[in-house]
Write a structure and sequence with these properties.
With 199 residues, the chain is of the alpha/beta class. The chain has 5 helices and 6 strands, in the order H-H-E-E-H-E-E-E-H-H-E. Strands 1, 2, 3, 4, 5 and 6 form a 6-stranded mixed beta sheet that branches.
Length: 199
């Protein structure tokens, strides 16, 4: 009995140390710009500002897709966590995509940062010790982000239609792809057959 308790304590302690080391490493590797973008997202999309949102979206990483003239070209990857078991409808998805772009695109523009495109990830479904929630992404080129911010008549629905038209194996535009792991920036295999109902 006492041996089992000691083993359990050792396992819990070891798990805590691993988590602290992982958090320390990931925090030290965070680009300072990520904190500024997270603040903008927290201001624009606090919990309660939209349906299904349990916490503000966050910048998961600022990946570098390439370099031009020695300067990095970023792909901001923003994660939106939904507290739902089912895939969200495309209207809701693109309302959030538009809100995310309106929050962070001006910051990057003002700083003169180069952006290849934006990945907005949506996590949903059952999540726990034995199962992982599902993660899907919408990839939006900077030209469409510019259009969204510069044209008052261009809204989330228009963005959805343009992303749907541009979705393809040879483009950076993705309607509802599987989230990328690590810093891979291939176009990936599209999964339109698994798309949620287009409301």
């Amino acid at each position: 009995m006492r041996t089992g308790l000691l083993v359990a304590l050792a396992v819990v302690t070891l798990a805590g140390i691993v988590l602290l080391v992982h958090y320390g490493l990931s925090s030290s590797n965070r680009h300072p710009l990520m904190d500024e973008l997270d603040e903008r997202l927290a201001e624009a999309l606090a919990p309660g500002t939209g349906s299904h949102l349990e916490r503000p979206p966050t910048v998961r990483r600022l990946a570098v897709s390439t370099e031009r003239g020695g300067e990095p070209v970023f792909v901001p990857v923003v994660r939106v966590e939904f507290g739902t078991t089912d895939a969200p409808g495309m209207r809701i998805v693109f309302e959030y995509v538009a809100d995310v772009l309106e929050a962070i695109h001006p910051v990057l523009e003002a700083r003169g940062e180069r952006v290849a495109h934006y990945d907005v990830e949506f996590r949903f479904g059952p999540d726990g010790l034995l199962v992982d929630g599902e993660c899907r992404r919408v990839s939006v080129p900077t030209e469409l982000a510019d259009e969204l911010l510069e044209n008052d008549r261009y809204r989330a629905f228009d963005l959805w239609q343009d992303v749907k038209r541009g979705d393809g194996d040879e483009t950076a535009t993705t309607l509802w792809g599987v989230c990328r792991s690590g810093s891979r920036f291939d176009t990936g295999r599209r999964s339109g057959a698994d798309s949620p109902e287009l409301e």
